[in-house]
Every structure is written in structure tokens, then in C-alpha cells.
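Quick one:
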Amino acid sequence: MSTLKVGDKAPEFTAKDQDGKLISLKDFKGKKLVLFFYPKANTPGCTAEACNLRDHYARFQSAGYFLLGVSADGAKQQQNFKSKFELPYPLLADEDKTVIQAYGVWGPKKFMGKSFDGINRTTFIIDENGIIEDVIEKVKTKEHASQILG
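Output:
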């Protein structure tokens, strides 16, 4: 789905998180970032993925990774999702889909036999210099941390 690949420069972005705070890719310069895109807050698959990452958060921190979730949900939905499941990382409320489109994760999907456009669950691992180290397109929601950390 995404045309971005390993070795590409990660597209710059600035968007508001669940609290209305602006977050940019440049905030993570010199740091490793797991940027994960998910279709919709508080849905079963997205909750499983977010909670799996939460449950392994200490491992991510030990490995030097920052986590940042992105969906097209509004700040209020993101805030609710974050507090309901005690997620220790920020969630971007990308309502205008600027970040989603920059990373090429918006497109055709199928669910229960219906075709529609939406966010294709994708994770980008970005190194300290803003270069994409890995792109995970076949996300296993209940095992996502081990897909990233091995």
C-alpha cells in the first residue's frame, strides 16, 4: 500500500496529539521512533494493537524507541482511547489525514465483503536520522511488539 520503503527519508509532519499539543517528526531527531497507523480508536483490532504495544512499553524504552500512534480520530476520541487503556505514548489526531496521506497509508480496504477507503494498518520504524528502517504492513495486532522488537 505505502510507497515508502526501507532507506527512504520519513516524511516530515506536524500534527496535534490527544491533548492538542503539536508533535513533529523533528521532535524525534536523534531518537528512534515507532510510528504506527491504525484505522480507528476503540475498535477491537486497534485496541489489541495499542494494548500490546503498551504491555511491552518498557522493552521499547530499553531499546531506545519512542512510540507514536496515528489515526484520523479527533482529539477527544484519542484522549478517551489513551486514558481508557492507559496508553503511555501520544496519539495523533490526524483528522485532515495530512500525516496519513504523507505516509501513503490511506487507500482501498475490504471488511466483511465491503470495499471502502480507509487507513491501512501500517507501522514505520524510523531511525535517529529520520530514515525508515522498516515498514510493517502485515501487522499482527496481538503480537505487534514482537514484530518490531523481534
